[in-house]
């Protein structure tokens, strides 16, 4: 089973290029809830910034399973794991700084939280993983 450590140089580039992704969580009815997100990968964790109280936050608080999937042309990568919600101001500031490096400076949001995913399984197209 591939892990984050299995990313090749092309795989590491792929997760730092400015691509959007989807976040899949388990909805209240047991079905998938899929939304577009920006994310970062740093120190072995996926981080997504969002507003507290959103459906994705409520889903993770009920069921920690989450998957981020990114696609660009023929290349794709899927990172699945356990998620937690971080509300600590330092954790939020760190995630905002990472997001600003990959995408752009996000708008001010006093209700911002971080979805932090600890990857358990990584799958991807040829060349992105060893």
From TrEMBL:
InterPro entries the record matches: F420-binding_dom_put (IPR019920), F420H2_bilvrd_red/Heme_oxyg (IPR052019), Pyridox_Oxase_N (IPR011576), Split_barrel_FMN-bd (IPR012349)
Q: Is Oxidoreductase among the key words of this record?
A: yes
Q: Which UniProt keywords apply?
A: Oxidoreductase
Q: Which domain of life is it from?
A: Bacteria
Q: Which residues form the Pyridoxamine 5'-phosphate oxidase N-terminal domain?
A: 8-122
Q: What is this protein called?
A: F420-dependent biliverdin reductase
Q: Organism source for this protein?
A: Agromyces allii
